[in-house]
Amino acid sequence: MSNYTPRVAIITGGAQGLGRSIALQLAKDGVDVAVNDLASKQELLSEVVREIQGIGRRGIAIPADVTSEDEVKGMIKRVADEMGSVDIMIANAGIARLSLLIETSVEELESVLAVNVRGVFLCYKHAAIQMIEEGHGGRIIGASSLAGKEGFTNAMSYCASKFAVRGITQTAAKELKASHITVNCYAPGFIRTPMTTIGPGTAEENLQSIKEKYESPQAEVGEPQSVASVVSFLCKPEAHFITGQSFNICGTTRVD
């Protein structure tokens, strides 16, 4: 199991939604948490930090763009310097753009891949470098999706990016095994978050509209805490024998 203990975590895309829920759950687990998001979300980040501190853990906000290698490296160095180590990396930041294949522009595709693939790659890479240097093992966890296991209508760019996360995760798990670093990802179905409820109607109307665009109108809807609980376990020392996996969190929407 190495001498790994979950002391300090970084969560990207931590200002709201799944990232916020994961950050608060890890704080409840006794972990100090650095939350990252874009600089434009500084106010939301500050609120999450206050909630983490209210639980009794250290928390810091680190605005950074995960598509920039320099900013990712700077984020990880700051956490290591200010909080003492990097034990957990949750590469949660992601975006979605919905359009048919024949209507998807190259610019749209590249914008999604930049955040969802390059961002995950950079966080995995530089967190792993830091963990190897510290020599204590660690946990790296990324955000895939059911759209990373099955193609959905109107979501070619998003599906491509989330399939890629699974490939990066499986490869990294094999390469980092000797350093006692586990690498896994979570694959949620429809979860009630700002990403799925934003729009012109009520939250429930907007969520239903999203499901219909994916041609899944009857799909079950979960809450962020279900994802946070799975991530919580994967961060614990006893999860040392789980690596290279992608966990469905979707009710009965898909079973494989």
From TrEMBL:
<dbReference type="GO" id="GO:0016616">
    <property type="term" value="F:oxidoreductase activity, acting on the CH-OH group of donors, NAD or NADP as acceptor"/>
</dbReference>
<dbReference type="InterPro" id="IPR002347">
    <property type="entry name" value="SDR_fam"/>
</dbReference>
<dbReference type="InterPro" id="IPR020904">
    <property type="entry name" value="Sc_DH/Rdtase_CS"/>
</dbReference>
<dbReference type="InterPro" id="IPR036291">
    <property type="entry name" value="NAD(P)-bd_dom_sf"/>
</dbReference>
<dbReference type="GO" id="GO:0048038">
    <property type="term" value="F:quinone binding"/>
</dbReference>
<keyword id="KW-0521">NADP</keyword>
<comment type="similarity">
    <text>Belongs to the short-chain dehydrogenases/reductases (SDR) family.</text>
</comment>
<dbReference type="Pfam" id="PF00106">
    <property type="entry name" value="adh_short"/>
</dbReference>
<dbReference type="GO" id="GO:0006633">
    <property type="term" value="P:fatty acid biosynthetic process"/>
</dbReference>
<protein>
    <submittedName>
        <fullName>NAD-binding protein</fullName>
    </submittedName>
</protein>
